[in-house]
Predict the 3D structure of the following.
Amino acid sequence: MIEFEKFHGTGNDFIIINGLTQNFYKYSSLAKSICDRNYGVGADGMLIVESSNKAEIKMIFYNADGSEAPMCGNGLRCFSKFIYDNEIIRDKKFTVETLGGVMEVEIKLIHNTLKHVKINLGNPKINFINKEVEIDNIIYKISTLFIGTIHTVIKVENLEKIPLEDIGNKIENLNIFPKKTNVNFYEVIDENNLKVITWERGVGKTLSCGTGAAATAIISSILNNTNTKVNIHMIGGELEVEVIDNSVYLTGPVDFICKGYFNY
Ligand SMILES: N[C@H](CCC[C@H](N)C(=O)O)C(=O)O
């Protein structure tokens, strides 16, 4: 039996397992089983707590299909609540090692309960902006960058007209992306507000994506002159992204859902 807790950040849901107190192997197949929405607990991803020699704690992250990914913004925000509420670290600011680099987190308490987490995703690395690709006779202008993990961002006029599953999948698997990509479509509401839907590598459609929100805010500020501090409206809720110098800050709510034992 594996003890786990489940959290969500704006509807992006995660299983978190304390690897400091439990030993188990084959994370990839465990992620696939535990994240399965019919035969498992159900989640977009699985996070494991491990000790670190580069930061105060380490987060390991797997997508629901069992693939390992370097970073997850909403996942890191949920992970921070797990760490604080389980008294693994009791400071309001701490550092977390991920495969995408060491990230700074800052927790926010409301009446002594951890409700919001702000994370610093570091410095984005832009691969290309507005590259034209043709899919099913339609030209899409895609922009790709690395912000903890790989994201492709595409501006559209009307999100409701986007067949996310079909086109998200095709862009994820374009041969210019040997390791695939996460895909975000966005609409500009005004200079302070963007609406975003995300197709995640290794998961599919999710209700929210933290690094995707950050990636979209960065590309939109370059292409549309939207502000460097914006609200990102995702299906599952709202996130705030702020770009200051070479850092991208992501802030939003996190919630504990349940705790239990997985039969594995
Ligand atoms: N949902 C996550 C991103 C997961 C990225 C993952 N699907 C990948 O393969 O890179 C977030 O909140 O940032």
